[in-house]
Amino acid sequence: MTDKPQKRERPRFEVRFYTDEKGYSQIRDWFLNLRESNPKALVKAKQIVWRLGQEGLDLRRPEADVVDSPIRELRTQYANLTLRIYYWHQDDTLFIAAAAETKKQSRVDPKLIPYAKMCFDDFQRRLQEQEDETERL
Q: How far is CA 83 from CA 15, 26, 107, 129, in A?
């Protein structure tokens, strides 16, 4: 008797990649690079993002943690690599992933958390501008 592959549940939460006004997305580029350089690590990265979509804020250490409010971190391992994804919780059902890195050591790239915070600020500013524009209509 063979087991049928189980159908994955639809995520309870949406996870989007941050993209700046010019269309650049550091995290999208990171995933594309990972697809070329290390497909097995890519699978692990996709799995942890999928888990965030399933569990949201219930996902805890060692896989998720607050690093510098409002920025949080998803963390997973593949072989000797640590994969880190920096994101924030936007509203009840939405998470925005802004940046990611692949590390052989445990230290965080000191530029990525400020970058993720800048992405957060930019996202909030653009969201407010959209709301202001809608109110003017």
A: 17, 14, 12, 34
Instruction: Provide the whole-model pTM.
Output: 0.87
Domain hosting 30: range is 14-128
Q: Give residues with Cβ within 8 angstroms of 8, minimum separation 6.
A: 50
Split into its structural domains, the chain has a count of 1
Would you list the DSSP string of 71-133?
EEEEEEEETTEEEEEEEEEEETTEEEEEEEEEESSSPPPTTHHHHHHHHHHHHHHHHHHHHHH
Burial label, 22 (beta-carbon count in 10 A; 0-12, 13-18, 19+): exposed
Spans of the chain, pLDDT less than 50: 1-2
Which residues partner with 16 through β-bridges? 96
- Report yes or no on 81 lying in a domain: yes
Does the N-terminal peptide bond of residue 11 adopt cis geometry, omega within 30 degrees of 0? no
Q: Give domain status of residue 9, yes or no.
A: no
